[in-house]
Design a protein that fits this description.
With 122 residues, the protein is mainly α. The protein is built from six helices and no strands.
Length: 122
């Protein structure tokens, strides 16, 4: 059922928000640091695991796919409510928390690209 896909997304969102708040407190920023991103990564892993175990039926997958496609609008909406001025004035750690993941992604892209070329498609 499609509602199961939405339920899985809701679970991932709640876990991501909790983890984002925890990371924010851990680094001394009074904000959620990457909660939606963590949620989407968790959704990808759960979706992949469910497919490998053949627990995912077509309608559940449609629910997950729909919300996966809504990722960018959700991130834009979430970003609109963030207080960037407070985050930047909180100090260097907040700026570093934004720059480091971008640099890690830039370094990881060529590596992931090589991995995908070596993997045969089914």
């Amino acid at each position: 059922m499609i509602i199961y896909g939405v339920g899985i997304l809701a679970f991932c969102y709640v876990v991501g928000q909790i983890f984002g708040e925890f990371i924010g407190k851990l680094i001394g920023v009074n904000a959620n640091v990457g909660g939606v991103g963590f949620a989407m990564i968790l959704l990808i892993f759960i979706n992949d695991w469910l497919k490998k175990k053949n627990y995912l039926d077509i309608s559940t997958e449609k629910g997950i796919t729909f919300w996966s496609q809504m990722y960018i609008p959700i991130v834009v909406a979430m970003s609109a409510i963030q207080n960037v001025k407070v985050a930047v004035s909180s100090g260097f750690i907040a700026i570093l928390a934004g720059i480091v993941p971008v640099l890690i992604c830039l370094v990881a892209i060529p590596f992931l690209s090589k991995l995908s070329k070596n993997t045969p498609l089914n």
